Amino acid sequence: MPELPEVETIVRDLRDKIAGQTITSVDLIRPSIWRSGPPRKKSLINTVINAVIRKGKNILIPLSNNFTLIFHLKMTGRLTVESKDAPIPKHTHLIFNFGDRQLRFNDVRRFGYADLAPSDKLAEIEYLKKIGPDPFELSRAMFIDLIRSKNRMIKPLLMDQSIIAGIGNIYSDEALFLAGIHPRRISSRIKIDKLEKLYNSTLRVLQNSIKSRGTSVSDYVDASGQKGTFQNSLRVYGREGEPCKKCRRKIKRETIGSRSAHFCPGRQRLN
DNA sequence: GACAACCTGACC
DNA sequence: GGTCAGGTTGTC
Hints:
By secondary structure, this protein is α+β, with helices and mostly antiparallel strands. The protein is 24% helix and 20% strand. It contains six helices and ten strands. The strands form three sheets. Strands 1-6-7-5 form a four-stranded antiparallel sheet, with helices on one face. A hairpin with a 2-residue loop joins strand 6 (92-98) and strand 7. The protein starts with a helix and ends in an 8-residue tail after the last strand. The protein binds a DNA duplex through residues 1-3, 6, 57, 72-76, 91, 107-112, 127, 152-153, 156, 159, 161, 168-171, 214-220, 237, 255, 257-260.
């Protein structure tokens, strides 16, 4: 489900809603959702939410007891804050109570996970260690160097979380469209001026999506359970067969790196 | 690189 | 019945 803009929206929501609050009790409904096994309730109850941080698509929540809660939502995970009286939907795996409100972790497909680790040991966690920098943390020159130094198809490269974090299937398609780059182009052979465009379009599409509170194509909702609106601004993702908004040619969909890639055959050429 | 695996549900 | 899905990981 969520890529950088959706995770960022949820993180900002959670800062508003639960930062500074104390966990009063927890329901470990589905223990197997914990990546490293379920923690003792003792290590969660009566701790204060110190902060809510995004690292790539991971959500980190440092607690006052020097442990950090970690979430990855994968495709269909949701983190919402609701009244304890609101009906509990199917596939809710985890509930943290804060008095009369609760943080709920829900995930139909169960690809997502929760984890708990000592805050001073986060640097040793393999799946966090290999997360690269956010696009926002990269200068234009760093971004271009990073891409030209690899010899890979540009779309899968953009989605590689160890190179640049946060970009997934939707925003790689959208950024490549805006830059006029075919998703199969080999990164090292793309002209500098195209990569400058790609840098700008990547930042722009992510920022615009954050302003729209993310893209809801099926499951994604923010921490209040509301859909985003950036699906209304997509230029290519999910628009196979529809006319390109710039040249009216039909948007194509092809499988690239085992993911479906959407692009305009007129504006994004291989040669 | 391609593909299967992890799961459920929507859609054809 | 088969295909597809905002992700990641591990196997050829």
